[in-house]
Design brief:
Chain A: Pathway: Amino-acid biosynthesis; L-leucine biosynthesis; L-leucine from 3-methyl-2-oxobutanoate: step 2/4. Chain A: [4Fe-4S] cluster binds at residues 345, 405, 408. Chain A: Heterodimer of LeuC and LeuD. Chain A: It is an enzyme of class 4 (lyase). The complex is a heterodimer of chains A (467) and B (198). Chain A is α/β, with parallel strands linked by helices. Chain A has 2 domains: 5-273, Aconitase, domain 3; 287-459, 2-Layer Sandwich (Aconitase, domain 3). Chain A contains 16 helices and 19 strands. In chain A, α2 crosses α5 and α6 (178-189) packs parallel to α8 (211-219). Chain A is globular and about 55 Å long. Chain A starts with a helix and ends in a 13-residue tail after the last helix. With 198 residues, chain B is an alpha/beta fold. Chain B has one domain (6-186): Alpha-Beta Barrel (Aconitase, domain 4), CATH 3.20.19. In chain B, 32% of the residues lie in helices and 17% in strands. In chain B, β2, α3 (79-87) and β3 form a beta-alpha-beta unit. The two termini of chain B are 33 Å apart. The chains are: A alpha/beta (467), B alpha/beta (198). At the A-B interface, α2, α3, α5, α10 and α11 of A face α4, α7 and α8 of B.
Chain lengths: 467, 198
């Protein structure tokens, strides 16, 4: 029987299968953060249970942490972080706290430590766990009850996902990044299009991408409604992993690579659904509305809700334009922003910072615009500083910050004020996501940097000759 | 978890699609370390709008939410389920639920019952024309009754069984502790392990 990659990884982790019951799936790696874990640890205490495999469990502090130097000043945020510290100490879980060189956004540190490996099952109480699928892992977000379940049993009862192939073939035009690919995918299949599926990104355009770009794509699988998205591991994957702290060493490396090379969809295996995208037709993409499926190429204009044939889409578009303060027909390039946010688990890795720095170097952030640059982890920050990227951003007038989730979600001090408009490299443009009343346009790092310079949504090509 | 067999309560028409979990409860309300007390954050941004459905006194005691498609998309926060339950909701009806939200609901005892969109539209009309109408949701027979309408709904069979019996997932899994142990002996040696904190 020919199998897809997702089916292979699934089968390798089935502890128990019985008719009429979900499969019991073994979990190789469980990542924790402060927001979705406290009630799970409480549950363990109430039932007198322990953490079954602390050696397969890693925690970090990311959602609540301020990105300016100094302690957490919000007492409620501080309680949540301190609760994680107490829980990790009590249950023997390894925690990377603020100030630790390994602290950072949970989905940045797993790959960076080499903990994220091909063929693994990886869960976290966070929907962007799909990021780790870039390595050919089956990785998905879970709720707090499931966090407790994994802590207690290292397994999860799950019904198999359906499989969807997303084929992206052809040559990507200049200025088109991984973020543009995934925004185009979401616009095509919709925010519910992936529900019940695991997406496998395939094709020559995907194969040509670096690991960091692949992570950006898998990260936003959840924005298409899919719990997981993955990419078959290849030489790019192995090269990225080799030598990392938790990657196998010596003869174990050779054994692992031999096993990892089997992790590809068999020729002739059938997917439950197939979507084809011609890479050559893609362009820098931005969102105009309040869900990630409401996106268009930057060269387009704000759509007229009347143009949507479906009544639900029409009313959603009307509501979105009202919230976003936009008029139909306005060119997307004419939309002025107040804030530019570069960071998050979607685009807070070193290549993202390099891409934006390459655009902004020798230029200035436009008057009246603030730009926040937030590395995804302490290690990304140190790497960027060793390359002088912090100075590039600072000289352009941007703020260089410490690692954390920052303005991706309105939970820490970095927030939009009501009515404030951002171009953001994060993953969600929901109403109020970046702060109550804030208006978000999702963009790539290159578009973020060009937008900071011009003050209106722009691509790097719009800056030609202006340096 | 409490058993769920049948529930009757005031139906609340929420005529919106793509209600993501950031709308159900914004991130700023997620800082508690308890499982209760999240009702103040439920639909926080929308409750400031006096035309929002829950600001109509007829619906404030509602317990059956009738929502548009793609309910519960976005963040995996189970706080969204807790906020709905703390407010008093026991059932959400929609033609399409996001996967993680539906899973979280089943774990916490909130029933997510899937109806056809045309049935949701009929319910919206009924609840808007006769505010305060009660809706009965019978999990055993998978039936929704409101006024003269009776609709069948879909729910995952395993989740239905667990809700009817009020069973806790972890206890069910721990019945298979030996199988988990056996599986662990077969895991390749090169799989990563971290040094625990003690």
């Amino acid at each position: 029987m020919k199998k897809t990659l997702a089916e292979k990884v699934w089968r390798q982790h089935v502890v128990r299968a019985a008719d009429g019951e979900p499969d019991l799936l073994y979990i190789d790696l469980h990542l924790l953060h402060e927001v979705t874990s406290p009630q799970a640890f409480d549950g363990l205490r109430l039932t007198d249970r322990s953490v079954r495999r602390p050696d397969l469990t890693v925690a970090t502090e990311d959602h609540n942490v301020p990105t300016t130097p100094g302690p957490i000043t919000d007492p409620v945020s501080l309680t949540q972080v301190e609760t994680l510290r107490k829980n990790c100490a009590e249950f023997g879980v390894r925690l990377f706290s603020m100030g630790d060189a390994e602290q950072g956004i949970v989905h940045i540190i797993g790959p960076q430590l080499g903990l994220t490996q091909p063929g693994a099952t990886i869960v976290c109480g966070d929907s962007h766990t799909s990021t780790h699928g870039a390595f050919g892992a089956l990785a998905f977000g879970i709720g707090t009850s499931e966090v407790e379940h994994v802590l207690a049993t290292q397994t999860l009862p799950l019904k198999p996902f359906k499989t969807m192939a997303i084929n992206v073939d052809g040559d990507l035009p200049d200025d088109v990044s991984a973020k543009d690919i995934i925004l185009a995918v979401i616009a095509k299949i919709g925010t519910g299009g992936g529900q019940g599926y695991v997406l496998e990104y395939r094709g020559s355009a995907i194969r040509s991408l670096s690991m960091e770009a692949r992570m950006t794509i898998c990260n936003m699988s959840i924005e298409a409604g899919a719990r997981a998205g993955l990419i078959a591991p290849d030489e790019t994957t192995f090269e990225y992993l080799h030598g990392r702290d938790y990657a196998p060493k010596g003869s174990e490396w050779d054994a692992a690579v031999t096993a990892w090379r089997e992790l590809r969809t068999d020729d002739g295996a059938e997917f439950d659904a197939v979507v084809d995208i011609d890479a050559a037709t893609l362009a820098p993409f931005v969102t105009w509305g309040t869900n990630p499926g409401q996106g268009l190429p930057l060269s387009a204009s704000v759509p007229d809700p009347e143009m949507f044939p479906d009544e639900g889409d029409r009313s959603a578009a009307e509501r979105a334009l009202s919230y976003m303060g936009l008029e139909p027909g306005t060119r997307l390039r004419d939309i002025k922003v107040d804030t530019v946010f570069l960071g998050s688990c979607t685009n807070g890795r070193i290549e993202d910072l390099r891409a934006a720095a390459g655009v902004i170097k020798g230029r200035q952030v436009a008057a009246g615009v603030r730009m926040l640059v937030v590395p995804g982890s302490a290690r990304v920050r140190l790497q960027a500083e060793s390359e002088g990227l912090d100075r590039v951003f600072a000289e352009a007038g941007a703020e260089w910050r410490l690692a954390g989730c920052s303005m991706c979600l309105g939970m820490n001090p970095d927030q939009l004020t009501p009515g404030e408009r951002s171009a953001s490299t994060s993953n969600r443009n929901f109403e109020g996501r970046q702060g109550k009343g804030g208006r978000t346009h999702l963009v790539s790092p290159g578009v973020a940097a060009a937008t900071a310079v011009r003050g209106t949504l722009s691509s790097p090509a719009d800056l030609a000759g202006s340096r | 978890m409490e058993k769920f067999t049948t529930h009757t309560g005031v139906g609340v028409p929420l005529r919106r699609s793509n209600v993501d979990t950031d709308q159900i409860i914004p991130a700023v309300y997620l800082k508690r370390v308890t499982r209760t007390g999240f009702d103040d954050g439920l639909f926080a941004a929308w409750r400031g709008d006096e035309t929002f459905v829950l600001n109509n006194p007829v619906y404030t005691r509602g317990s059956v939410l009738v929502a548009g498609p793609d309910f519960g998309t976005g963040s995996s926060r189970e706080h969204a389920v807790w906020a709905l339950m703390d407010y008093g909701f026991r059932v959400v009806l929609s033609s399409k639920f996001a996967d993680i939200f539906r899973g979280n609901s089943g774990k916490s005892g909130l029933l997510t019952a899937q109806l056809r969109q045309e049935d949701i539209e009929l319910l919206w009309k009924l609840l808007e024309n006769s505010p305060g109408t009660e809706v009965t949701v019978d999990l055993e027979h998978r039936m929704v009754t409101a006024g003269e309408h009776v609709f069948a709904f879909e729910v995952d069979e395993y989740t239905r069984w667990r809700l009817l019996e009020g069973l806790d997932d972890i206890s069910l899994t721990l019945r298979h502790a030996d199988e988990i142990k056996n599986f662990e002996t077969s895991r390749p040696a090169w799989k990563p392990r971290v040094e625990p904190a003690r």
